[in-house]
Amino acid sequence: MKIEIKQGNITQTQADLVIVNLFEGVTTPGGATGAVDAALGGHISQLIALGDFSGKLGETALLYTHGNIAAPRTLVVGLGNASEFDVASARIAAAKAIRAAQKAGARHVATITHGAGIGGMDPIEAAQALVEASVLETYEMPAIRSSEPQNKRIQHLTVVEFNEARIPLLEAGAQTGRIIAESANFSRDLAATPSNIATPTYIAARARAMAQEVGLDVQVMDWGEMESLGMNILLAVAKGSDEPPQFIILEHNKARASELPTIVLVGKGVTFDTGGISLKSNSGMWKMKYDMSGAANVLATLRIVALLNLPLHVVGLAPMVENAINGHAQKPGDVYKGMTGKTMEVISTDAEGRMVLADALAYAGRYQPDAVIDQATLTGSISIALGQQAAGLFTEDARLQARLLAAAEATGERLWPMPMYDDYKAFIKSDFADVKNSTSERMAGVSTSAKFLQHFIEDYPWAHLDVAGMEWTKKARPMYPAGAAAFGVRLLTQLLTDWPAA
Ligand code: BES
Ligand code: ZN
Ligand code: ZN
Q1: Quick one: which ligand is closest to 379's CA?
Q2: How would you write the pLDDT of the chain (502 residues) with one tens digit per residue?
Q3: Active-site residue identified among 107, 208, 254, 280
Q4: For residues 192 and 11, what is the distance between their CA atoms, to the nearest angstrom?
């Protein structure tokens, strides 16, 4: 989508459709909406007077302008109650409006920012919200077809601002919003791409290309390098597949590592999860192509960190493996020793995510990080507990927890704290190794998985996000069309943006 900021009057702006807005309870629109209303002979005021439009957040009304303004259509979007208006409302309004504009058949849309005028919002934030929400909302997953269907997507978005002095601010905000949303969409593309294409090797190639493009340091470890580090728990998963594993390492500000805070992001990168010998049931198994969403989100977040040039040393670890079944596949009862020297017994080969993370988290310790945050589509039970309303947050570090919850609040990517009582350790006690990768009963499936990960953490602040319920949107929400979600990219970006200087 082409995005531009233009100084001008919305009534004179050429586009297929122009978007204006209205707070709830306003009877006579002002500003840009007022100008459109006046040009249309009070059409918008009449809608309000008749009770056909109330200004409720996200409500839309489509009007034809009959040559009275430059654009043939105008769309009014509700901003809700003015006293409750915030950046979250601005994003919802933008998403609902762009969706309605796309449905109306517009290819070139012009819009005012939501809330920067009468709403009193910071113009940078308002522009970021507008562009971020618009790019996320109009995302479409890649499909492989023999003939291309007609493209009905919006091609061009013009943000119109009357006040010349504000243009540079809007440009800055729009640029940030675009970087964040396009990166999240990059993650969505990887998650939606089928596993026969999106293999560990393919993802590593995409990561390398992306790193080159944005100036990140990149390294990819192969089997031999992982083996010499002793990552035998991770490799126990990898050896059941004919696809070679790839351990992707991205780094921002590597040269300044000693002077800047170091944050390591880790993502589960299982390109397909058959369950292995503990085979999954057939129903819905196709979705297990998104079992690498955590890793894809890490790549996306590093892309953002590089483009925004955040003053931090950020490391992204994306261990990529396929969980399949061949003659070498790991079996229940097997015991493996990982990079930390600790051993584990396999109970379920379907609890492979925690195995991959065990060695990736051990590796994270090498950077002497100020914090490590992993995100993983780790358990089915987290979505039974929280649905698609929040991801599970597991940490015993109060400061990191507070920062993550603040970032969740700011972005609307919700986290809910889950318990990490030491009692859960008893559930993963093994008779044949230090720990086992699954419980015998189905009790406390989420907390025991987090306890398993914690067993491999060596002395750094750590938080685990179980995003299994969040990475494939079932029912579309604003900014999250059905399908690959890239949930966590905006959240982690916010966390890093707000991270205090050393
Ligand atoms: N990738 C799955 C978790 C998952 C399930 C993600 C549904 C997304 C949607 C994970 O590897 C897994 O299979 N977990 C098992 C753990 C069990 C064997 C202890 C699960 O949740 O059933
Ligand atoms: Zn699994
Ligand atoms: Zn899995």
Answers
A1: 1
A2: 999 999 999 999 999 999 999 999 999 999 999 999 999 999 999 999 999 999 999 999 999 999 999 999 999 999 999 999 999 999 999 999 999 999 999 999 999 999 887 778 999 999 999 999 999 999 999 999 999 888 889 999 999 999 999 999 999 999 999 999 999 999 999 999 999 999 999 999 999 999 999 999 999 999 999 999 999 999 999 999 999 999 999 999 999 999 999 999 999 999 999 999 999 999 999 999 999 999 999 999 999 999 999 999 999 999 999 999 999 999 999 999 999 999 999 999 999 999 999 999 999 999 999 999 999 999 999 999 999 999 999 999 999 999 999 999 999 999 999 999 999 999 999 999 999 999 988 889 999 999 999 999 989 999 999 999 999 999 999 999 999 999 999 999 999 999 998 7
A3: 280
A4: 40
How far, in Å, is the centroid of ligand 3 from the Cα of 354? 8
pTM check: above 0.70:
yes
Question: Is the CB of 437 inside a 6 Å radius of any atom of ligand 1?
Answer: no
Q: Which atom of ligand 1 is nearest to the CA of 273?
A: 1
Please name the residue that has the structure tokens 């919700």. 414
In the annotation, is 153 catalytic?
no
| Contact (CB, 8 A) for 286 and 392 | no
**Pocket lining: 291 vs ligand 1, CB cutoff 6 Å:** yes
Helix (H, G, I), strand (E, B) or coil at 278: coil
Ligand 1 in reach of 348 Cβ (< 6 A) = yes
Nearest to 465 by CA among 393, 362, 398: 393
39, 11 in Cβ contact below 8 A? yes
Sign of the torsion angle spanned by Cα atoms 436, 440, 441, 442? positive
Is position 2 annotated as part of the catalytic site?
Answer: no
